[in-house]
Write a structure and sequence with these properties.
Blueprint (H helix, E strand, L loop, with lengths): L1 H31 L6 H17 L5 H24 L7 H23 L13 E4 L2 E4 H23 L1 H11 L1 H6 L4 H27 L5 H5 L2 H8 L4 H29 L10 H12 L14
Antiparallel strand pairs: 1-2
Length: 299
């Protein structure tokens, strides 16, 4: 029972970070219909930028966070205007291919700028606490708290501000939004900016526990099964999907890895595979995800 509680709480904590990263993915998809397959690289670059701010520019933690968000936000707008805007109106496959090119290009830039070695990023404390029978690190608590704060701030922005209402209108119907004077291109820029910023925050939170490396781009791609499970166009689905994936991969490590290892099938490592298996089963039952909208087109 203690093991189950440990895996459950740890899964919820890390799953909240996955949900935060998935918000950027969902936002880009809702506003523009684009599957941003470069979100993992935005996560990785955010961690590297923060590492540079702290260890190269010698900024304190608060300034390093602000520096990271500013650079990531500008990067998101540049990507939108240089890589995505010229493809507006082009076939969807062309846009998806562009995000794949972005993914490869950004990873190459990271290797050229910082190398392929894993770098330490120490932001939070190293204490441990006992919560409901589970041992939880201070880093995990901070990651959970900051993720929740970011999600709440994003939800309030999305609901209460003019920019947020414009994004909701574009997500609902681009042509109707354009007819009332909303500039679709500006909303695209806005969505990529937010995707880059929340990706950067997620990268910092993940790197503070595992270190900064190219592998963070693969961790960032955990958003793919997250959004498939929650629904590509559902913000609440992104959060709940993140928690589901966090718990599922922890349970796979704790309970399934020992079994399959004893059977001689694989040598562990189900943490990286199980979220996709779970997404596959959910999509068979609910093709639009748990909270995705089912659209009916009449001809």
């Amino acid at each position: 029972m203690d093991m189950f509680i440990q895996l459950l709480i740890s899964g919820v904590l890390v799953g909240t970070v996955y949900g935060l990263i998935a918000l950027g993915f969902v936002l880009v998809y809702k506003s523009s219909g684009i599957l941003n397959l470069a979100q993992g690289e935005l996560v990785m670059l955010g961690a590297y930028i923060c590492y540079t701010g702290i260890n190269v520019l010698h900024l304190n933690i608060a300034l390093a966070f602000l520096f990271t968000f500013a650079v990531s936000g500008v990067m998101g707008i540049v990507i939108s205007r240089v890589a995505i805007r010229p493809l507006v109106g082009q076939p969807l496959l062309s846009v998806i291919m562009m995000t794949i090119v972005l993914s490869i290009g950004l990873r190459g830039i990271a290797i050229l700028a910082w190398g392929a070695e894993t770098e330490g990023l120490s932001i939070f404390g190293h204490s441990y606490y006992h919560i409901a029978g589970a041992v939880v690190s201070e880093q995990s608590i901070w990651a959970f708290a900051l993720s929740v704060l970011a999600v709440v701030a994003f939800a309030l922005y999305f609901q209460k501000t003019k920019g947020g209402r414009a994004m909701r209108a574009v997500a609902e119907d681009q042509q109707a939004a354009q007819s009332v004077g909303i500039k679709i291109i500006n909303v695209f820029d806005h969505s990529w900016l937010i995707a880059a910023v929340v990706g950067a925050l997620g990268g910092i939170l993940l790197a503070s526990g595992s270190g900064v490396s190219i592998e963070l781009s693969h961790l960032g791609l955990k958003v793919l099964p997250v959004v498939l499970i929650g629904g590509l166009d559902s913000i609440q689905g992104a959060i709940i999907g993140g928690v589901i994936v966090g718990i599922a991969e922890n349970m796979a490590v704790g309970y399934l890895d020992p079994v399959v290892s004893d059977w001689g099938l694989v040598g562990g490592g189900l943490r990286n595979v199980f979220p996709y298996i779970l997404a596959l089963f959910i999509l068979v039952v609910r093709p639009h995800g748990l909270f995705g909208q089912k659209r009916i087109e009449r001809i």
